[in-house]
Structures
1.
Amino acid sequence: MYTYNDTDRLLVAERVAQYRDQTRRYLAGELSEDQFRPLRLQNGLYYQRHNPMLRIAIPYGQVSARQMRLLARITRTYDRGVGHFSTRHNLQLNWVRTDQVPDILAELAKLDMHAIQSSGSCIRVVTTDPLAGVAPDEVADPRPWSEVFRQWSTLHPEFVALPRKFKVAFAGGPDDAASVRTHDLGFELVRDGQGQLGFRVWAGGGLGRTPILGQVVREFLPWRDLLTYAEALLRVYNLNGRRDNLYKSRIKILVQSLGIDEMARQVEAEWRHLQGGPQTLTDAEVERIAAHFAPPDYELLPQLDSRFEFSRRFDKEFAAWVKTNAHAHRQPGYVAVTLSLKAPGRAPGDATAEQLDIAADLAERFAFGELRTAQTQNLILPDVRKRDLYNLWQEAKKAGLATPSVGLLTDIVSCPGGDFCGLANARSLPLAAAVQARFADRAALADIGELRLNISGCVNACGHHHVGAIGILGVDKNGEERYQITLGGAIGSQAAIGSIIGPSFPAAEVPAAVERIVEHYRACRRPKERFIDTIRRIGAKSFASAAYAKDFPDFENEREAVNG
Amino acid sequence: MANKLIKGDIVVANEWTVLRLAEGESPETVKLPFGNVLVPLAVWQARQWDLVRRHWDQGHLLGVWLGPKDDPAQLAADLAHFSVVGVHFPLAGDGRGYSIATLLRTRYGYTGELRAIGAVGRDYLHFLRRVGFDAFEVNDAESAIASLEDFSDVYQVAADGRLPGFRRSATTALAA
């Protein structure tokens, strides 16, 4: 993984010093609340419902075991011993103190970590596929490009006060776990007809209150031009994005109003001035960065491991875990493993300091000392020998990190919701727990198969409900917490925004409604057909009548009458 | 208006006034204040000859300022006339001025004084200087000036001409 050089360390240390002075001036009354807000946001500090929250950046999700132990220590020392992994690689601490944040940032800086640009109207922490570099089918490893972009976008002087937040993702190929189409700007690695590496560039995607999928703004961008093109696009957005209305200020609205062709034309016109200029990437620079992401010293192993196959045959529980939590790897004899943060009854993405320490230990013992954070709010060990899986599983199980649910309905993605967040209309976490409890039966869960369920506590959509096969959105109706259900959302090459099926449900009704939707799927599916594919085939509407069965008995009778 | 100004890396007296059009005032008829004055783009466009004549007759220097909605291309042909071009930040969070400054320096070749006016806080001085500003109307200029040195290295190319590490080594290699 990337290790900092002197420039990286210097800039992070100077950022801490700068923010320490800003905090001092704020606490001394020299900076007003309004003046301090953008400064603290761009250092990761949110003021939310009960207490300030610090969002620590884990750029493109890669973190070492040593860094993970530091996160554990900080969580223990400055928070209440529990951290929350967001859907964008960040670790959020919900109980920090404003005056201690400079000390936290100083501790992070010691191990090359920070909270720079993890919030605020700026280029945010860059994200990528959590299996980058090990996924068998990627065009190229997106991590070097993510790091190149991290450096360029960090403290970029022209883009410190954009109309709104700006999220950038890199995908290693068409199988897009990074979800480039739901980002303000997305780079998908591709090769052109001559085999040259470059990017398909997507712009104008985003979730939030107006969910829109990104469109192709440039079909092929040679890799050398990555940063000059990004500068051109950001400049067009910075100058022309709306600033009069917070809800219309993302680049997606600009792209919608101009149309993608006009947007592309303006970016190209701006880019013509920058193309080939000093920001153009060089072979030497890309080689320097890429060298940090060389594969670890893999052992040469056969694809099959007899001990692993034996354990899998004779331990059904282990086999079930392997089926969901172990992922194909490009190196024979290796797999990537998800350490699940979805234990029943726990907030999705939450990890205790002890679990962070144990995850670090496991990474050191079994996975070259490296971890990833996933958009699904889980941790990943990217390089594990099949031979070690049984031992790893037993250790992970003891630590509550082996819930065998990756990709299944109970692998719920959720924002912290109204329990913590000042923006939320409704609580997400009790609902996640209730849905998980409803689907506690593992055999049934396995039978339902792949199903992404996402919960957001408000229209800001931090739980990405628009792209859940089942999406649940908290809404406020006359002071009552209610939940709207959307169906058919997806990420990747088949990305889609889910459609709302009808009126909202009270909290208590949601698990039953989800169950009825799932039962409808089981009744309608073809052999081996996934939930999302059944929805695509028969339409979300068909599911709506199933979902409301209990709430609207008359509706159901009417339908029967019509049918009869 | 602050009566002190950071210019380059020292604090100096501010010898300019900024003309702002009040409600009901029009660029054609607004009274031009005595002395060196930064006028809005619309006033420059409407009163170019008045302003040039003042400059000739009375020696008042020419200056103009751009708001966040102004297109610097409109000033491109005139830039050589001005002693000072101002860029106005109505709020710290309105970052259009950073791109306007970048364009003035890198696209339109402006080499005179480029002054940040309006909501200019010390916490933004490093960024402002990097996009090409060399003068800053900021409160408490004497203490704020230290913030110009908040960061001593850079990750990206900007209008100040400083280069990120990979370009510096390339240059050194070329020179050698």
2.
Amino acid sequence: MIRRTGYHVAMGLISFLWVAPILWVIVISFRSFDDVAANGLGSLPHSFTFSTYKSAWEDADEFRALINSLLVTIPAVLLSLGLASVAAYGLARYSIPFRRTILLLMLMGNLLPPQILLIPISRFVELIGYYDTLIALIAVHVGFGLGFYTFVLHGFMRDLPREIQEAATIDGAGPGKIYSAVILPLTRPALAALGALSFTWIFNDLLWSITVIRSGEKMPVTPALLGLQGLFVSSWNVIAAGTVIAAVPTVAVFLRFQKHFVGGLAIGAVK
Amino acid sequence: MTALAADRRTFLKGLGLLGAATLVPGCATSSKSPGSGSAASGELALQSNLSSEQAKAAMEKLVAAYNKTGGSQVKLNTVASEIFRTQLPTYLTSANPPDVYTWYAGSVADSYAKKDLLLDVSSVWDSMGNYSKAMQTLSTSSAGQKIFVPTSYYWWGMFYRKSNFAKWGVTPPKTWAEFVAVCKTIQSKGIPPIGIGLGDTPWVASAWFDYLNIRINGAPFHRQLLAGQGNFTDPKVKAVFTKWREVLPYFDPKGKSFPFQEATSALLAGKTGMFLIGTFFADSAPKDALDDIDFFQFPIIDPAVPVAEEAPTDGYFASKKVQDVDGTKKFLTWLATAEAQEIYVQNSSGTAIPANPDGKSADTPLVRKGKAMIEGAAEITQFFNRDSSDALQPTADAALTKFLDKPDQIDKILADWQAAAQKVFKA
């Protein structure tokens, strides 16, 4: 019993350590600027205000930034998972020549550090006339996610029993029908997990948005948060409020898919 | 447990509704976005890094005022200063770059002129005959063309709280000996005399290097050193650090761990005595403390050296690839007027001083004093990175931070600094 209590106390303390920075941000987000300036970021709050949320929302235009983020994230997730599942279906269920090579080639792209591709991508996007558009950003995210998603889905689809597909073929279903009516529904757990993961990855991306987008009004929420920082002086309370707002969509997705999130981590771990 | 799950669901349902509501107008606006990125003819794109709330609002007012005068309409595009800094080379080299940019005068502008990326604005300067000689020099490229239009500057000084100085019984020092005496007195009250904030903002230490160098060796030596024509292992540079060591015990030991914004809070709360900083720090001060803030000029060390002050100058330059050259020059000419600069100064934090000598600055004792100090200076420098390059700044940050930690290793630190600087100058 004592050991159990000790365990809980210790684990409680450790969890608190994890949560503390988040709590700190939330506390700062309710403090006024003069309070932060006079007492420092680290002090206990001497004020309480909601105005930080108002200025993050209105002055910093976080509303528009969130819409931009969703306009990028949702199509990018749907498109990359859709394409990846088709590719994985073909590679996993049919004996296409060189399919191993194709898969490895797709995965190889993910092994490159994205930083070395920044300049080529920014130049290429400009060349084809899509610089400073959300479409460019979606395309970049789809391109980068595709290799990894295909690899994961391939592993999952390969392990579906052969007999199901044979039964469907006997019933007269073509490859397209088998994909949409048999394989895709069976892949749902993997798709949900990947969907949740890719949503957070794309939503939280900063690097690509500032590489292909130049107009302030088209920036997604992560660079918009950066924009709350001034050249020298930053209103940390407003930034904290903005961060809390920006975290809401990812937290929502996490709550909805939390089961799959954990499951997603184990995809491909055990055959 | 079930109750919790139900709560989670309702929360999500609410969010879903919110999300659906936001998507409706979102779709309507998104269809317009492709293709509208570049400025159409008759419209000028102004790329601004002034992203803090007040400065952004001031820029919006400035642009609105210009657009009312007729001519090309200007479209302001504000991006985070950090993004702007890293992306500026990309903007300038892209096929369809923004037209006008906020930036800094001096070698940081010249580095782009050397790559032939900037518009020659010599004709704009025809209307700027009343600008000081120093401003002209700062706006001229190494090829002898005017490439920059300065609009405002600010100053650096040793800031303190008047009430605290009165409480401690000290008066602002003028000479180095008086300064050391003030430090001793403040320390005897149990307060660290000199505040500094180097965590995240290590460049703040460069102000000390700049000022000690221009006070001991003079501005011409300082400029040459930063331009790569000197050597950091020079005994004259070492003399700077010998002087610095005299006051090193008076620095706030906590200053290494927090950024300058926190150091400002420490100064205002009376936890440190003085702070060598630029006027932009006032933006991070609570409004009620502002009346109590004053500054004194960095103490004179060698009266034989002509007095120089740091006055970083801000303004605009334009891309070489602008479509509407006349419209761009017209806008820049307007930005150089006293009227335009007053609009900006009145609506921003108020510590910036118009670059046009006819422009009125904010009428506060602090700004009057700062303006008088700069106008009385024999020489003007800007700041370490602005007088050298953004590439040289990290070498200074590394050297100065190390010096503050281990002042006795100065010879090795200076040798390392010279080696690092050599690489930057050769690149």
3.
Amino acid sequence: MTANTGTTVMTLLQALNLALMEEMERNKDVVVLGEDVARNGGVFRTTEGLMAKFGEARVIDTPLAESGIIGAAIGMAMYGLRPVAEIQFSDFIFPAMDQIVSEMAKLRYRSGGEFTCPVVVRTPSGGGIRGGHYHSQSPEAYFCHTPGLMVLAPSTPEDAKGLLKSAIRGNDPVIFFEPKRIYRTVKGEVPNDPDFTVPIGKARIARAGKDVTVISWGAMVHTCLEAAEKAARNGVDIEVVDLRSLVPLDEEAVLNSAKKTGRVVVASEATRTCGFASEISAFLAEEIIEYLEAPIVRVTGYDTPFPYALEHVYMPGPNRVLDAVQRVMTF
Amino acid sequence: MATHKKPENLVRVLPLEGLPATTAAPKLSAEQHRDMFRSMLRIRMLDEKMMLLQRQGRIAFFGPSAGQEAAIVGSGSVARAEDWIFPALREAGVALHRGFPLEQYFGQLFGNVLDPQKGRQQPMHFSSGAVHYVSLSSPIATQLPQAVGAAYAAKLRGDGTVIFAYLGDGATSEHDFHSALNFASVWKAPVLFLCQNNGWAISVPFEKQTASDGIAIKASAYGMPGIAVDGNDVLAVRATTQMAMDRALRGEGPVLLEFVTWRRGGHSSSDDPTRYRDEDQIPPWVLVDPLQRYRDYLRSANIVNVADEQIIVTELQSAMDAALAIAENADRPSMDTLFTDVYAAVPPHLQRQMDSAGQDTTGRAEGAFPL
């Protein structure tokens, strides 16, 4: 067995680091920039070892300004580089909203395709780390609402590696949400092949089932899987669909599962109103309501700022997912 | 309205009453002078013609540049073909100087198939890959950190490109101005920050924009040189931009140049400056027409005489008329351009929207359901 075949068991964080290593090795245009990403290897150590291997010109500790980081990354990409910009916590992405929404997302369109900026913005998101309001939010819906961006949210080491590599090799700007709660707690087999990628726009059936479809993404997928095991012990067979890619959405996978089970729950950590769970619900209601045996039920965070002391109440756990499953099963 | 306490200190080649020259004229060939003068005349002529078209309802919007021709052409003419321009609102004259075809310029204003952007932006938001003139967006100062990123990339590749980043005085209040100057100086990026200080951000005068004595002084906090220039003196603009360019090419990093000029017209065709501007408070020197000032110099130096100018004007006029006739009759962009270029390839959800678009505009009858 050569190094290019088989798999290695690693954490999600290690998988991300490996993806960056391999892509920087593969293409000298790939550069990494952000706060604390070089010498310190990132506050979560996702970029550890990159500076030592590729030098300070390609692994850049930037001044502390998110708008500057994304703006500079856009210019680098326009000129031909493949920048991977880190926003240290997705809660700090908002100073860069103008650059992301007005510039990065629109450049290809507004210039008639003459200027493009394939920037990958990596950003840890989600709660469950006792981080309080400014280290816990899940802001993906803002970006799903912006044409021109691809929005990815992997939940396994294999997908983290494969999707990040696809994002870096692709020609579109990507917001890449990393499930920081499970950076180190989730381990899995990751293919050794440096050309292994996961296609953008394809969902994954995380657990096959026949009674209820539970759709989720990011760290919440694991909560749903936990709920599914509990349900199985009580005779309910849940299918968990891990979207992986929110934009573009794998409409076919979502439709097929929902048609098969006729009962749908959408689970997300983000606040409820106008969240991406609502978009999935609306999409299914519009397309296949005749297949449904029950209303589509959303399980989400509350419409409050993300709390500190009551984090465990705010974040949907397996029991809240099961409450929703029960509701669609007994409708 | 006084953006500088001591206007006599601005870098100046062409003296004015009470404002002596502070530096020597740059060494330029007669041909270079004629090119610059032609580009300045083109801006003035287009301005007059396009404002007329806007008032006739033939284009939706226009942003005039009259009075700023020296700042625009004096700086933009320093850029070489391989250099990149990140413009603000009033630098279309730089694109034209670099060979951006007039058909495309008019095509952009009309929003038709001649526009490289496929009619996707409001008039004045020009873009041209061919002349490295980056698509303008309306949010203020966003182009500045992007210009720094492009400069970083050029430096990383070692290809000697210099990035020209334009901004207005209003842009200096934005966070992206700060980020850009800060990043650029830390990185010693080959980027020139070229501020056209025309005294006004729509209706807000300079003294309400910033309490500092001009813009150039702000550079010192970022550890880069800042130079305040008489922006109506095309030779001073040209000389300082060339100096900044040479410095960037030596790897010494960015410079902030402030061209002190004056917006003769409104902010745009939608603006009425009589609502907020008191013309008699303006120091007379900023009102001196940069075009006339250059014309006087060219005549006294025997580079462009009256007959020469007439030939240039006639050429420009016939080129304008010909391009306008072609552009005004060009087709509207096709329906698919609504959906292409959002992504590199059209994703399935957009394909479905594309397939159904426009169907609501056909054959609906009144008075019965289903219609």
